[in-house]
Design goal:
Largest sheet: 8 strands, mixed
Helix content: 25-40%
Strand content: 15-25%
Bound molecules: pyridoxal-5'-phosphate
Order of helices and strands: EHEHEHEHEHEEHEHEHEHEEHEEEEE
Oligomer: single chain
Low-confidence stretches: none
Shape: elongated
Structural class: alpha/beta
C-alpha cells in the first residue's frame, strides 16, 4: 500500500483518507497535457464535492461542471470563477436556473427543448441573455456499465440528434439565448479510447453540417468519462491523460477560435481517496468467513449500486504472508452491502484497519445516513 496512516488512536472510523499530493500531481499532469492546446477542463463536482478537494482544484485553475444549484453554490464557495462554471442536468428547476443566471455562470448545458423554453423565459425575467450549449445524445455505446452509460438513445440524457435542428433553430430565434456550443457526455469509467474517437467523429459530422448553414459553435464540450484502474491503483495512480487528450486533440477538426471543453470527474479524484474502516467482527459462517467492517454501503455506495469493486487492503498487516479468505461486508441491513467476496488478503483480527482503495470519486459524495449512521469523516494528508 502506498500510504501510511498517522497515529490512529482515538480516530473515529470509517473515514475518507485523501492523498492531496497525488491530487496535485494528477492536476499537474492534466495541465501539462493540455498546455498550448484549445482544451479547457472542468471538474465534475458530483464526483467529490468535499470543500478541501474543490479548493485545490479551483486553485489549479480548472473550471467546474455542476449538476445542481447546490453544486454551483459549492463551486462558488470553493473559489471557482463564475464564468468557468457549467451546469448540466435533465431536471433543472426554475430556482436553480435563476440562481445560475444571477451568478453569471459560463454555460447551461440544456437537455431538452422544454428546458430551453424555460431558460429563455427566465432569462427575459432576469433581463440577462443566457449562454447555452445544447446537450446532444450522440447514440454512442461507451461499453461501460449499463447504469453509467449515458449517450444511448434509450437514456434520458440530452437531445436526440433528430430533434437537434429544431432546438438549434429555437435557440437562435430567442433574444434571451446565446447559443455558444454543443455538449456531449457518453458515460463513465471508459477505459478504452475508441468511444472517445467515435465521439469526435460524430461531433465533426454535426459541426460540418451546421457550418454549411453558416452556424458555428464556439464550445465543443465532450463531457467526461475517462476511467481509472480500480484493480491495481498503485501501478496506475494517474490515468493515461496523454492518450485521452491526444485522442481529442487529433480527433476533433477545430476551426479557429473553437474550443474543446471536457468535464472529468472520476479521473481527477478517484485514486487520491481511500475509505478507511475498522474490522468489527470476523464471523465464522458455513464454509465462509465474513469480515464485517464498520463501513457500509451508506459510506461507499458504488459496490451496492453498480456492482463495482474497490481493491481491499489491510493497513499495516501483521504478516503479509499469512493470508485468509473473507467475504468483506458492511453492517447495513441490506444483502447488497458487500464490498467483496472470496477476498484473499492478509489475516486480520478484530480492530484492524482495512482500506477500500480508489474511493475518491463517487464515494464521499454519495454517502448517506441510511440506517441512521453517521456520515464518514475525512482526513487530508500531503
Ligand atoms: C457525471 C458527469 C461527468 C463526469 O463523469 P466522470 O465519469 O466522473 O468523468 C461529466 N459530465 C456530465 C454531464 C456528467 O453528468
Amino acid at each position: 500500500m502506498i500510504f501510511k496512516l498517522p497515529c490512529m488512536d482515538g480516530v473515529r472510523t470509517p473515514f475518507y483518507y485523501y492523498d492531496m499530493a497525488l491530487l496535485r500531481s494528477t492536476l499537474e499532469e492534466i495541465k501539462k497535457c493540455i498546455a498550448g492546446s484549445d482544451v479547457h477542463v472542468h471538474y465534475a463536482v458530483k464526483a467529490n464535492g468535499n470543500p478541501e478537494i474543490l479548493k485545490v482544484i479551483a486553485q489549479a485553475g480548472f473550471g467546474a461542471d455542476c449538476v445542481s444549484g447546490g453544486e454551483i453554490a459549492a463551486a462558488l464557495n470553493a473559489g471557482f470563477d463564475n464564468a468557468s462554471i457549467f451546469y448540466a442536468g435533465v431536471g433543472k428547476t426554475d430556482e436553480e436556473i435563476l440562481f445560475g443566471i444571477e451568478k453569471g455562470i459560463g454555460c447551461f448545458n440544456v437537455e431538452s427543448i422544454e428546458e430551453l423554453e424555460v431558460i429563455a423565459e427566465l432569462g427575459e425575467k432576469a433581463q440577462r441573455k443566457v449562454p447555452v450549449a445544447l446537450r446532444v445524445n450522440p447514440n454512442i455505446d461507451a461499453h461501460t456499465h449499463e447504469y453509467i452509460t449515458t449517450g444511448l438513445e434509450e437514456n434520458k440524457f440530452g437531445i436526440d440528434m433528430r430533434c437537434l435542428d429544431k432546438a438549434v433553430d429555437k435557440a437562435l430565434a430567442s433574444e434571451w439565448i446565446d447559443l455558444t456550443g454543443l455538449h456531449f457526455h457518453i458515460g463513465s469509467q471508459i477505459t478504452i479510447t475508441e468511444p472517445f474517437a467515435l465521439l469526435c467523429e460524430r461531433i465533426n459530422k454535426i459541426t460540418e453540417k451546421y457550418r454549411e448553414k453558416g452556424i458555428e459553435f464556439k464550445i465543443l464540450n465532450v463531457g467526461g468519462g475517462l476511467g481509472i484502474d480500480y484493480d491495481t491503483p498503485d501501478e496506475n495512480p494517474i490515468p493515461d491523460f496523454k492518450g485521452y487528450f491526444d485522442t481529442l486533440i487529433s480527433g476533433m477538426h477545430l476551426q479557429p477560435g473553437q474550443e474543446i471543453h471536457c468535464e472529468l470527474g472520476r479521473a481527477i479524484v478517484a485514486q487520491c481517496g481511500s475509505l478507511i474502516s475498522r474490522v468489527v467482527y470476523i464471523k465464522e459462517g458455513i464454509g465462509r468467513k465474513f469480515l464485517i467492517l464498520d463501513a457500509g454501503m451508506n459510506d461507499l455506495m458504488r459496490p451496492a449500486l453498480y456492482g463495482a469493486h474497490h481493491k481491499i487492503e489491510v493497513v499495516d498487516p501483521r504478516d503479509e504472508a499469512e493470508t485468509d479468505v473473507y467475504d468483506v461486508v458492511g453492517p447495513v441491513c441490506e444483502s447488497s452491502d458487500v464490498f467483496g467476496k472470496d477476498e484473499k488478503i492478509p489475516a486480520v483480527r478484530r480492530g484492524d484497519l482495512v482500506a477500500l482503495r480508489s474511493a475518491g470519486a463517487y464515494g464521499e459524495s454519495m454517502a448517506s445516513e441510511y440506517n441512521m449512521r453517521r456520515l464518514p469523516g475525512s482526513l487530508f494528508v500531503g
